[in-house]
Amino acid sequence: MTVATISLTELIADSALLTRVDRKYLLPVSQLPELQDRLYGSARALEIDGLTWFSYRSCYHDTPGLGCYLAAGRRRRRRFKARTREYLHSSQSWLEVKTRGPRGSTVKDRIERRSNSDELSLAELSWLTRTLTDRHIDSPAAVTLIPSLITSYQRRTLQITSRDHEPPTRMTIDVGLACKLPPEAPGGSLIVQFDQYAFVETKGGPRPSEADRTLWAMGYRPQGLSKYGLGVATLRPDVPALKWHHLLDVCLAA
Questions:
Q1: Containing structural domain, residue 202
Q2: Residue 254, pLDDT above cutoff 60
Q3: 3-class SS at 164?
Q4: How many CB atoms lie within 10 A of CB 2?
């Protein structure tokens, strides 16, 4: 079944959603055709240059002691996640930082990069420090950030319109996830792949969206998913798995 499409300009105009509530779901890849069928008529896929699936590469940055990973795993309120992201189809690269907003929302700040290096420049570290200060998060740790995990995957982005005339929301579907430690990490360049799973995320307001209700009807509920958390918990046995231990058991048992 062919899905309708939407341009990047339209998607940004209708649902930029840099401040939003994220709900994350783990599905077997085999369930994606059913998800697409259920969303038929309410979903439009982002299309750029005739493509609706795009290759992403992200490098997560953390302190030498993995302070960001530990803060997320222990559900610290004032935490952040920093990463560089490459859109391989367009050669664009961004530095992004995610923080927690009010009522469980996620706030994303980002700047475009001029380099594809995994190392952050002094100017980028300075921007991170200012951004974290603006978000009322202690920022001294920003200057110690180093590459900690590299992920790659294929993504499809959908705009979902509700039958109840709610504002449009987004859904991202990530498949073919591979997580790799950088060469300087303990153990070297270890890699793990999660080809059998789709990492699905809805991005909208505080109320569950049409996309969420569709996933619930299929028997799926939001989970505490994190590609960074899953990758570190899998590849770094020297650190605790924390809240990702159940996810780790599910993914590695398949």
A1: 4-253
A2: no
A3: coil
A4: 7
